[in-house]
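To illustrate the input format used throughout this study, we show a single complete record. The first block contains the structure-token representation of the backbone; no residue identities are included at this stage. The design step must infer an amino acid for every position from geometry alone.
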């Protein structure tokens, strides 16, 4: 006996369950991101940050369309929490923007740092098992990192209460991921 574990044991989740969870949570996350940016743009219609937010929102809309496509193709159910993410995402975006451009960008940095780690874990878990999903995740992750860098260039870390804003938003993002995978 080599001590190696077989690839599948009774009680283990099937890999199809894992990829369905990935697609579900990623679609929910991209949907939430579009709502955050919609809330920010409702408040910050003009200014130095508005153009950057519009560009990031357009990329998030493309990511959402990709995950929507994967959900349809693979018959993955959406999270039952979509109505909550609709409201919560918009509220977070509007609230952060009401605190100013730097706070809106601080929101972006916090969310994108959590999403970067989330996508990295998914990519590692997938390995070469599902190239289509892996490529979609890798492309979205690259854009999310670019969004973080854009937000940092817009002085996100100079927002009043940056550490508190960042910690609260990161906690909320991690909770949203956990819930969306399961509900």
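Output of the design step:
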């Amino acid at each position: 006996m080599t001590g190696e574990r077989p690839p599948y044991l009774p009680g283990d989740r099937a890999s199809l369950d894992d990829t369905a969870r990935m697609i579900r949570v990623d679609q929910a996350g991209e949907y939430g991101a579009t709502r955050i940016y919609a809330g920010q743009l409702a408040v910050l219609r003009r200014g130095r940050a508005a153009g950057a937010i519009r560009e990031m929102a357009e990329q998030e809309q493309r990511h959402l369309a990709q995950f929507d496509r994967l959900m349809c193709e693979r018959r993955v159910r959406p999270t039952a929490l979509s109505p909550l993410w609709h409201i919560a995402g918009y509220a977070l975006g509007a609230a952060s923007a009401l605190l100013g451009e730097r706070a809106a960008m601080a929101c972006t940095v916090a969310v994108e740092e959590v999403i970067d780690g989330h996508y990295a874990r998914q990519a590692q878990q997938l390995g070469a098992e599902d190239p289509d999903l892996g490529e979609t995740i890798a492309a979205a992750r690259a854009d999310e990192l670019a969004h973080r860098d854009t937000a940092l260039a817009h002085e996100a870390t100079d927002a009043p209460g940056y550490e508190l804003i960042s910690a609260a938003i990161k906690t909320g993002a991690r909770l949203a991921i956990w819930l969306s995978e399961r509900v």
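Structural context for interpreting the output: The mean pLDDT is 91. DSSP finds six helices and no strands in the chain.
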